[in-house]
Amino acid sequence: MVRPRPAPRSYSLRGRLLWLLLIAVALAALVQGGIAFYAASSEADGIFDYHMQQIALALRGGLPSGPLPRHLAHDVDEADFDFVIQIWSLDGTPELTSSERGELPRQAAPGFSDVTVNGTRYRVFSTRTSTQVIQVAQDLSARQELAGSLVLRIVGPVMLFAPILMLAVWWVVSRSTRPLLRAREQIARRAAEELSPLTATDIPDEVRPLVDEINLLFARLAESFSAQQSFVADAAHELRSPLAALRLQVQSMQRATDTEARTVAARRLIGGIDRMGRLVDQMLVLARQDAAVDPVGTAPVDLRGTATLAIGDVLAAAQGRHIDLGISESAAVSVAGEPEALRILLRNLLENAIKYTPDGGTIDVAIRIADRSPVVEIADSGPGIPAEERSRVFDRFYRVAGASIAPGSGLGLAIVQSIAGRHHATISLDESPGLGGLLVTVRFPVSNAQPTSDAR
User: Fold this and answer.
1) How many CB atoms lie within 10 A of CB 237?
2) Cα separation of 179 and 201, whole Å?
3) 146-175 pLDDT tens trace
4) Quick one: pLDDT at residue 76?
5) For the chain, N or C: smaller number of CB within 10 Å?
6) How many angstroms separate the CA atoms of 359 and 405, rounded?
């Protein structure tokens, strides 16, 4: 059992772009805030350590000789002073302290260290003189509080600016995608038969090619629908005449009183049915060629072999009229395309030539390479086509004036033109210099040429 393929997930380009940009802005703000916090904290620690070091160094050599009071609390407001200063004699006797919270343990090793006293963590700097040990300490909680206020002043503007930047991103994205919404509304409001181009004003350069392609598609659809309507109208008109003729022939056969008259009427009826069938076949072939949207195949098609098959299709009709039909020049060359379509192209050209070539005439098929392009030429000894009519004979259901001697549907050359267009080939009509009739030249593009190995 074949499971149905899940429907592709749809998403909004505007929504995805907006969310990605907002997330990027938020992440950038967080990263910038983290970096600023780390930098500010490190800088604050460096500044406080520097101040502690400078206080300790300032006390070196500046103390009076003799005993000093152990407490300086009456000279220092502890609420505004975050540092604790202690001076020890070399034998360990405390000589000075600036705090009444208790003495800090003596740090024999000079430099910075962290100690905990009565549940409070201190950052301590110690230095030694020739007679004393000087210690400057700072409560780490006070340091962190001061560092936090400094970090807040640095990171605060970043956090405040991030929402403003998000709003700016939302406004820019919404305004930039507004032309897409207008284009979508244009398509949603139009009726199924409306194929006018979309308005391409204020469309971004990245989206303009898409709108242009949609307009080209609408133009091709309008042209296709117009051709279809014209084809249906022409087909209805062309079918009316043979149907009326068939009706008259049936009535003639019904009125026939003897066997000979009935036989003649039946023969005419069969001929009318054959012509009707031929017209319907031609219409179906043309409809299939016009409806083909896939590119032609890339497999090489031997033009000489295809021409031989097309000649075989019409050889009986040519022999019935004693027409000399054959290949006068045969270069071994192949083109990329559809074998059956190219066979129909050549067969229709040969059938058209047989219709207008008088009994005992000549039709020559030449396959050559001219200016590196594959070329097929079909020349006949018929009356040809006047120069003023050559631009119209490829129209559907169009027949040259005075062509009643060779009845047809008027679709043969239209089919040829459709197949040639799909193969990027060009068709030209001229007068045959050798036979005096019509010369049809089918020229394929240079890129289509693929010489075969059995050239003779």
Assistant:
1) 10
2) 8
3) 777 777 777 777 777 778 888 888 888 777
4) 45
5) N
6) 12
Question: Global pTM?
Answer: 0.48
Distance CA 451, CA 453 (A): 7
CB distance 390 to 429 below 8 Å: yes
CB 375 within 8 A of CB 249: no
Which residues are CB-neighbours of 145 under 8 A, at least 6 positions away?
none
Least confident of 219-233, 298-312, 363-377, 424-438: 219-233
Q: Are 175 and 120 in contact (CB under 8 A)?
A: no
Average pLDDT, the chain: 76
Q: How many CB atoms lie within 10 A of CB 414?
A: 24
Please report the DSSP string for 273-337 in residue order: HHHHHHHHHHHHHHHHHHH--SPPP-SEEEHHHHHHHHHHHHHHHHHHTT-EEEEEEE--EEEES
Round to whole Å and give the CA distance between 82 and 94: 20
Residue 426 is given by DSSP the state E
Domains and CATH numbers, the chain: 12-176 (no CATH), 296-451 (3.30.565.10)
